[in-house]
Write a structure and sequence with these properties.
The chain has ten helices and eight strands. By secondary structure, it is an alpha+beta fold. The strands form two sheets. It has a five-stranded antiparallel beta sheet. A hairpin with a 5-residue loop joins strand 7 and strand 8. Helix 1 runs antiparallel to helix 4, helix 4 packs across helix 7 and helix 9 packs antiparallel against helix 10.
């Protein structure tokens, strides 16, 4: 095993450059594992040296792919791993839904026209269903449990990309429901964002977007989503303990990182809108945002 994680040849080294706390991706993955999404990318903090030159703190992370120990679905032409991805490239397997959203098909690779059509037709039919007042059939279309867990991780953290912009993953096997996840890419979450709407700890964000917006109009789904948050409030509160333990674990490494990349007090990068005099100040800011966010959601649900 590699740093306690299952063997594989594919890994990502995440720089977390836009995140001065260095821990936002880790926090989201930790919450996903705690809430029990079927698969969460495993990760470990590392300090990277390249040709003996220090490169700073990275998050060594499992990449998202179909495999026994990762996204565990069959490899055939009617089982899919898909990313909603507005940043797709021209040569990738992408189709647009009737609503114009780009769906990037990661598996099967080199899918046949018939295989892609099967998925595209299913997505379009699902989107047609969402426009109807029907609530009894929701479970035929989506795995409600994974959708609600996935929704709350994105909503609580107010993840910019999670608003069906990019890095929104799901799986679908013919004959079954759409299952949301795994979570990915949270460096622009938890506040500190140049978009003021997204930066504020108050306000709904993901709830107003795309599929989620339609699902929340269905009473059965809405009530389940609200009661899930109430029942799991302790897990969301416990994020603060995770932040504190990471602060202690990373204190020395963070010092090295910000000596190498002198960006703590810089506001030049488009996503570095806050200037901090210390790593502790960046962490304190994150804790304050987390507390306000939870208080706001709790008050709204009352």
């Amino acid at each position: 095993a590699f740093l306690g994680m299952p063997q594989n040849r594919d890994w990502a080294l995440i720089a977390n450059y836009a995140d001065k706390t260095l821990i936002k991706n880790y926090l989201a993955y930790h919450l996903s594992a705690t809430l029990g999404l079927p698969y969460t990318p495993k990760c470990q903090f590392v300090e990277l040296f390249l040709n003996k030159e220090y490169q700073g703190v990275y998050l060594l992370t499992e990449t998202i792919k179909v495999a026994k120990k990762r996204v565990n679905i069959p490899e055939n032409d009617s089982s899919y791993l898909v990313e909603v991805d507005s940043k797709y490239k021209k040569d990738e397997q992408v189709f647009l839904s009737e609503q114009g959203k780009p769906f990037h098909v990661l598996s099967p690779k080199n899918a046949s026209y018939a295989s892609l059509s099967l998925l595209q037709n299913h997505i379009n039919s699902f989107e047609e269903f969402l426009k109807t007042p029907n609530t009894t059939e929701i479970a035929n279309w989506i795995d409600i449990d994974s959708y609600i867990k996935y929704y709350w991780i994105q909503e609580y953290s107010k993840n910019f990309d999670g608003a069906f912009y990019t890095s929104v993953f799901f799986t679908w096997e013919k004959g079954g429901p759409i299952k949301m996840g795994p979570v990915w890419d949270f460096d622009l979450a938890f506040g500190g964002h140049p978009d003021t709407l997204n930066d504020a700890p108050e306000g709904w964000y993901i709830k107003k977007t795309y599929w989620t917006h339609r699902l929340f109009k269905k009473t059965a789904f809405r009530l389940k989503a609200y009661s899930f948050f109430d029942e799991h409030l302790q897990e969301f509160k416990a994020v603060e303990d995770t932040i504190e333990s990471l602060r202690n674990r990373l204190r020395n490494a963070a010092k090295n990182n910000f000596t190498r990349w002198n960006i703590l007090n810089s506001t030049e990068h488009e996503n570095h809108i806050r200037s901090y005099s210390s790593y502790d100040e960046a962490i304190d800011d994150l804790i304050a945002w987390h507390r306000k966010r939870l208080a706001w959601i709790k008050k709204e649900l009352e």
